[in-house]
Specification:
Strand content of chain A: under 5%
Helix content of chain A: 55-70%
Number of strands of chain A: 0
Radius of gyration of chain A: 16 Å
CATH topology of the largest domain in chain B: Aldehyde Dehydrogenase, Chain A, domain 1
Distance between the termini of chain B: 78 Å
Helix content of chain B: 25-40%
Structural class of chain B: alpha/beta
Largest sheet of chain B: 7 strands, mixed
CATH topology of chain A: Ferritin
Oligomer: heterodimer
Radius of gyration of chain B: 23 Å
CATH class of chain A: Mainly Alpha
CATH architecture of the largest domain in chain B: 3-Layer(aba) Sandwich
Number of domains of chain A: 1
Distance between the termini of chain A: 42 Å
CATH superfamily of chain A: Ferritin, core subunit, four-helix bundle
Chain lengths: 145, 497
């Protein structure tokens, strides 16, 4: 089902953050070598939720079209967070990069759609997307090291 | 989509809040019904005149000390209230949805607007400063001190149960007055929760009182000699013929914000996508139960192709609006508040058909409700074409999800029919042409004018204006005008020998 309302968009963003946080917490247990980094990703995800909620609750008003804020198909951003049995470290890092790319795409698309309606929410979305670009670089460096 | 958790879980009998105490009423008790589920969620008293009198006496008794509390100290109570409201933001919002039926985004928007008024009133140490002239004559100085007046009555409507009393109450108490609030008995839970937070913020007893009820309480406020002023939001007949007139008779200050029939003028050069998005929220947001809801869509120009394609898109988009219980985040339009209002809206739809308007979308039929809820209070969005300004649906306030489309040859004609309407609450124009926008805002006799804005709701630091039959009074709620309304100018002229 397509997500239209501002509330749905924010809830979906939170779901992506929580699901990927669970993925990194799982990864930290399985791969002790970069466990601290994975746990810090999970903690950052929680901070992202706080930041997004704060801007949403700050700007939601009847001056904007809150019931028609987005046009998001959640199926376009389905995350594969279950780690396959027998997956090696390179595989799970690839999986992490794929998750990050999906989430970046969600934030970019959602920011573009809601830009005419809300100033702060798209800005927060893009900030989180940029943070995730850095995360992809970091994930790449794990493989090299 | 899963339903958000309901904050009201058990039916309780709501109490009045008088002199810092929660007091059971001796009046009749009536049910408060969730319009989406049609289940009783609370019981509210129709309080007696004696109960109102007790609240007014408590407010009167609290006034001298509260007035002597410094503006800075008073603002700190409001800062504490603001913090508590932020902490309770989601709960307060969901209560509104549960008792009123609006969507959760709409409720959160209402909560934010309410809190913004508290925030603005927090600035009272500077907002209520007076002014001073030295040497108005030799050795004589003169200055003005805005002083509080005493006890104010605040009468709230059903459509914004949380926000609208906050257009007045924070400014009233910030300036040193005390208040008695009568929420709508249809939606009493939001103001009750607000009063609980007021109590938690530590406001002294008697400064902020709530008396639930109906006409007895309203009449008691209008007659009470210790109430110095009233703010009211509701219908024009009540606002004009009852509140405004009787405040005049009894020498009270008054702000009476009344009904509306808002025009949205659509120029052929408008940004079609953005205009249609704004129309959806303006006509159908809050299920059309908003004094700033657009009611008449006036499409300008003789280009038949533009008209047809624009209206077809409006109908298509409107048909896709998801209807249901507002605690389902996917829902874009909730029910109307009760069956009486639904019947009234349906009667208007019937009159539109009888008077010859073309029914493009019939909200009475095939209502698709998301989830398993009774159809009792639900109504789909309705669109009429070929509406004339003298038809009932083109001239009277329907207060429901009904769009009346009119067609005019040019902007002058659009302004003419907008101004011929007896209301003047919130009219807007959608255009990419600055000259048209300027001409519209200059010429239209409306209190709140939108240029590419569907809901012309002023921010808390601007007055919520209104003209003609939409407003009776002089000063308005919100911002600096509210500060002026709740204070009297005491002018001092001083000379020392």
């Amino acid at each position: 089902m397509i997500l239209h309302t501002a509330s749905e968009g924010i809830t979906f963003a939170k779901k992506l953050e929580n699901d990927s946080a669970d993925f990194y917490e799982n990864l930290a247990q399985r791969n002790t070598q970069d466990a601290e980094a994975f746990l810090s990703f999970a903690r950052d995800n929680k901070k992202n939720i706080t930041q997004i909620e704060r801007v949403y609750y700050g700007v939601i008003t009847d001056a904007i079209e809150g019931c028609f804020a987005f046009n998001i198909d959640p199926d376009d951003y389905t995350l594969k967070t279950a780690v396959q049995d027998g997956a090696n470290y390179a595989d799970v890092l690839d999986q992490a990069v794929e998750i990050e790319r999906k989430i970046i795409k969600f934030y970019s698309d959602a920011a573009e759609q809601s830009k005419p309606l809300m100033a702060d929410v798209p800005r927060a979305f893009m900030m989180v997307a940029r943070k995730r670009e850095n995360r992809i670089e970091k994930l790449g460096s794990f493989l090299k090291s | 989509m899963a339903l958000l958790e309901e904050p009201i879980k058990e039916v309780r009998t709501i109490k009045n809040y008088i002199d810092g105490e929660w007091v059971e009423s001796k009046g009749e008790i009536i049910d408060v019904v969730n319009p989406a589920t049609y289940q009783t969620i609370a019981k509210v008293p129709i309080s007696t005149k004696e109960e109102l009198d007790a609240a007014v006496e408590a407010a009167k008794a609290a006034f001298p000390d509260w007035r002597r509390t410094t503006p800075l100290a008073r603002s700190r109570y409001l800062f504490r209230l603001k913090e508590l409201l932020e902490e309770s933001f989601e709960e307060v919002s969901r209560i509104q949805t549960q008792e009123h039926g609006k969507t959760i985004d709409e409720s959160r928007g209402e909560t934010r607007r309410g809190i913004e008024n508290v925030e603005v009133a927090c600035g009272i140490p500077t907002l209520m400063q007076g002014y001073y002239s030295e040497d108005i004559a030799s050795g004589i100085d003169e200055w003005v001190i805005p002083t509080p007046l005493g006890v104010f009555g605040i009468i709230g409507p059903f459509n914004f149960p949380f926000m609208i009393p906050l257009w007045s109450a924070p400014y009233a108490v910030a300036t040193g007055n005390c208040v008695v609030i009568k929420p709508s008995s249809e939606v009493p839970n939001s103001q009750t929760r607000l009063a609980e937070l007021v109590e938690e913020a530590g406001f002294p007893p008697g400064v902020w009182n709530i008396v639930h009820g109906g006409r007895t309480v309203v009449n008691g406020m209008l007659e009470h000699p210790s109430i110095v002023g009233i703010t009211f939001v509701g219908s024009t007949p009540t606002g004009r013929d009852v509140i405004y007139k009787r405040c005049g008779d009894t020498g009270k200050r008054v702000i009476a914000q009344c009904g509306a029939k808002n025009f949205m003028v659509i120029m052929p050069d408008c940004d079609v996508d953005r205009t249609i998005a704004a129309m959806m929220t303006s006509f159908f947001g809050n299920t059309g139960q908003r004094c700033l809801s657009a009611a008449n869509a006036v499409i300008v120009g003789e280009d038949d192709a533009f008209y047809k394609s624009f209206v077809d898109r409006v109908v298509e988009q409107t048909s896709s609006i998801r209807i249901g219980y507002g605690l389902d985040e996917s829902v874009q339009m909730g029910p109307v508040r009760d069956t009486e209002k639904k019947d009234r809206i349906m009667a208007y739809i019937e009159s539109g058909i009888k008077q010859g308007a073309k029914l493009r979308l019939d909200g009475r039929k095939n209502i698709k409700i998301a989830g398993d809820y009774p159809e009792t209070c639900f109504l789909g969005p309705t669109i009429f074409e070929d509406v004339k300004p003298d038809m009932k649906i083109g001239s009277e306030e329907i207060f429901g999800p009904v769009m009346s489309i009119m067609r005019v040859k040019d902007l002058n004609e659009a302004i003419e029919i907008t101004n011929a309407d007896p209301f003047g609450n919130g009219d807007s124009i959608f255009t990419t042409d600055g000259k048209s926008a300027r001409e519209f805002q200059y010429s239209v006799t409306s209190g709140n004018v939108g240029i590419n804005i569907g809901i012309t709701a002023p921010m808390a630091f601007f007055p919520f204006s209104g003209m003609k039959d939409s407003f009776y009074g002089v000063l308005h709620t919100q911002g600096r005008e509210a500060v002026r309304f709740f204070t009297e100018s005491k002018v001092i002229i001083q000379r020392w020998f």
